[in-house]
TrEMBL record:
BP-aspect Gene Ontology terms: polyamine catabolic process
Organism: Medicago truncatula (Barrel medic)
Pfam family, one: Amino_oxidase
Cofactor: FAD
Listed name of the protein: Amine oxidase domain-containing protein
Known pathway: Amine and polyamine degradation; spermine degradation
GO molecular function, one term: flavin adenine dinucleotide binding
Family from the record: Belongs to the flavin monoamine oxidase family.
Length: 391
């Protein structure tokens, strides 16, 4: 069976190679065959360039919205407080905090959501440690990779249109491997931040960057791998990865460079809370895919960078999508309240007519009840209060 499969695969590959060779030749005016430049990168240098242009730069279609809206300058954020700091700052606006610490017990951290039971009345969230939370609505901000995985169970299951949209979105794996050295052996200075390694295996430790500009004296190099190479490296030990990376560096800088003293290999693909680094919508995808990925299912609202049509793949995409989804939910709650008030009014009208003791005109009385009593009752019965914030 394996031999047959191999033979078929080998035949398909041979056919593809022949097609490529034929494509590379075309007849000139005299009917002689001439070789035209190949569109498929073949040499190590062509492969390295192709990797940088497509995998590394995410094959984004020009013009890139982020550059259009925020300018073309790129920044390496080297603030040691990290993104946490921004989140805590923003949280001060709506959670109880003191001296930068969140004291609000509505915020539940380190809870792993495993199941969402949803109906027309509300959503029940069940976590891995057996806690159960009930809410009128839920905003779900897990990554597209997590939505594609089986970490979360939806009960009832998500509708087909939603599942299809989630499946259509590609997940990019983008891995930055950090290597720390006892001293610097690479060129530094203006215009010397990046270097490229050309290898016959596409994306094999191609793109390198030193950290001297952001962290002077840190003696750290970063190499970026993507997709297939990221997954390959995640499946092996850090020692093997270190060996491969050192062989590449010695190929570039000679045999006498020192061994790295530390290595950090993030595993975005195998991390069950990520299952990839960020979304990468196929160029052919249409607006409907975005729309369906973002669209709520009943009382479950979806957010995250993958729901941002303009900035998907980016931190600011996640941030702006969050604001957008928050507003959409507030609007939905407002409409729900309106609907409930209307139905209460309809119920009350016959009652008021029956009492026969109305002194004011009917519309005026009803509108008073509508304005004061009913909303108060709704608040008291907890209809409008979302009991706990689940992050
Ligand atoms: C190596 C790398 C480099 C990047 N470089 C850039 C860059 O230069 N510029 C840029 O703008 N963006 C960059 N990004 C992308 C950026 O990090 C993402 O776009 C951004 O983090 C998306 O935010 P998000 O809130 O949508 O999703 P996430 O950051 O994935 O947040 C989702 C959260 O949900 C949690 N979660 C998942 N499942 C569960 C569960 N079952 N229960 C409870 N919690 C759960 C996760 O732990 C996570 O905290 C990079 C990403 C990577 C990996």
């Amino acid at each position: 069976m394996t031999h047959t499969k191999k033979a078929v695969e080998s035949a398909i590959q041979k056919l593809r190679d022949e097609e490529v060779e034929e494509d590379d030749e075309e007849a000139n005016d005299d009917g002689n065959k001439v070789t035209k430049p190949s569109l498929t990168p073949k040499t190590p240098v062509e492969l390295a360039i192709d990797f940088i242009l497509h995998d590394f730069e995410m094959a984004e279609v020009e013009p890139i919205s982020t550059y259009v809206d925020f300018g073309e300058r790129e920044f390496l954020v080297a603030d040691e407080r990290g993104y946490d700091h921004l989140l805590y700052k923003m949280a001060e606006g709506f959670l109880f905090t003191s001296e930068g610490r969140i004291l609000d017990d509505r915020l539940k951290l380190n809870k792993v959501v495993r199941e969402l039971q949803h109906s027309r009345n509300g959503v029940t969230v069940i976590t891995e440690d057996g806690c159960v939370y009930e809410a009128n609505y839920v905003i779900l901000s897990v990554s597209i990779g997590v939505l594609q995985s089986d970490l979360l169970a939806f009960n009832p299951p998500l509708p087909r249109w939603k599942l299809e949209a989630i499946e259509k979105c590609d997940v990019m794996v983008y891995t930055k491997i950090f290597l720390k050295f006892p001293y610097r052996f690479w060129p530094c200075g203006p215009e010397k931040e990046f270097f490229m390694y050309a290898h016959e295996q596409r994306g094999y430790y191609t793109f390198w960057q030193h950290m001297d500009n952001a962290y002077p004296g840190s003696n750290i190099l970063v190499v970026t791998l993507t997709n297939g190479e990221s997954k390959r490296v995640e499946a092996q030990t850090n020692e093997e990865t270190l060996r491969e990376a050192m062989a590449v560096l010695r190929d570039m800088f000679g045999p006498n460079i020192p061994d790295a003293i530390d290595i950090l290999v993030p595993c975005w693909w195998n991390n069950r809370f990520q299952r990839g680094s960020y979304s990468n919508f196929p160029i052919i995808s249409n607006g409907k895919v975005f729309y369906n990925i973002k669209a709520p299912v009943g009382r479950i609202f979806f957010t995250g960078e993958h729901t941002s049509e303009r900035f998907n793949g980016y931190v600011h995409g996640g941030y702006l999508a969050g604001i957008d989804t928050g507003k959409a939910l507030v609007e939905e709650i407002r409409k729900e309240n309106e609907r409930e008030s209307e139905s209460q009014t309809l119920l009350l009208e016959p009652l008021l007519a029956l009492t026969g003791s109305l002194t004011k005109s009917k519309p005026e009385t009803v509108s008073n009840i509508h304005k004061c009593d009913i909303p108060t009752q709704l608040y008291l019965s907890g209809k409008l209060g979302i009991p706990e914030a689940i992050l």
